[in-house]
Amino acid sequence: MKRTEKIKTFGFFNVDKPSGITSGTVVNKCKWLTATPCGHMGTLDPLASGVLPVGVGNAARLFDYFLEKEKEYVAEFTFGVASDTLDSTGELTACGYVPSEAEIAAVLPSFLGDIMQVPPKYSAKNVNGRRGYDLARAGVEFELQPKKVHIYDIRTLGKSEGKEDTFRLTIRCGGGTYIRSLARDIAAALNTSAVMSSLRRTKSGVFEIGESIPFSVLEEDPPLEELEKYLIPTERVLPFPKLALTGKNAERIFHGLAVETDEKDGLYKIYQNDLFYGIAEVAQGKAKAKTKLC
């Protein structure tokens, strides 16, 4: 039975998505529980688990502000095998040798900073109006162009317990990075092959795994009063300063008009009658409301 009572406030759920379900499944559950439109702030593959921020109500309008956020992962790479999907969900083929941890660690520094990375064909990348994974499943031949991504830190954590061919790595990277592609490229630097066999996102911007809600809690269909306790206010997740507005400026900006300001160029949080209104952009001494959230 569909819930009819809507949640009274907007914000974010920091959900710990389990492996084996899609990000869409989590979003749809949040929609049903809140009777409100929702959207995730960066998808996780079904194989992956961990932090999945879900915007509730108007907070879902902030997707573009989360594209460049820093993320942290713990991944498992299995060496000596390859697959069409670059992970263990694809058809595995024995290919290459299993390197030592020291050999893997030796090539990791070459992946720090800005690197060019070719996305997996089995991804949501758009190719002439169609998703890459749809083309790949249909057997259509196509190529994806490399894109620049940023790796802040990457290091080995040793072998996975009971697995001689699988190593754990911790990765801190910018938005848009494909960990599956990293597995492929690190292995190629060692003249072998590898697939991503496990992935857990431990941080996505300000959202951390230690403060996340297990998806099992949402599956218990908690009442709205309890859900609201888990909801993170929108203004808390935006790392922008408050824009001071006085006099006529305090009203003109809420009518879509640009107002003069001495603040530096950039993005700011704006408030109307002490209530969080949305985001303003300052450019060349002028401030204008950019995204309304109330």
Structure description:
There is one protein chain. The chain has 294 residues and is of the alpha+beta class. The protein has three domains: 11-68 and 206-234, Pseudouridine synthase (2-Layer Sandwich), CATH 3.30.2350; 79-152 and 175-198, Pseudouridine synthase (2-Layer Sandwich); 240-292, Archaeosine Trna-guanine Transglycosylase, Chain: A, domain 4 (Roll), CATH 2.30.130. The protein contains seven helices and 18 strands. It has helices at residues 23-34, 101-107, 132-137, 179-189, 215-219, 224-230, 249-252; strands at residues 11-17, 38-40, 49-56, 71-79, 81-82, 93-94, 113-117, 126-127, 130-131, 147-159, 166-173, 194-204, 207-208, 213-214, 259-260, 266-272, 275-283, 286-292. The strands form four sheets. Strands 1, 2, 3, 4, 7, 10, 11, 12, 13 and 14 form a ten-stranded mixed beta sheet that branches. The radius of gyration is 22 Å and the shape is globular. The two termini are 29 Å apart. The mean pLDDT is 90.
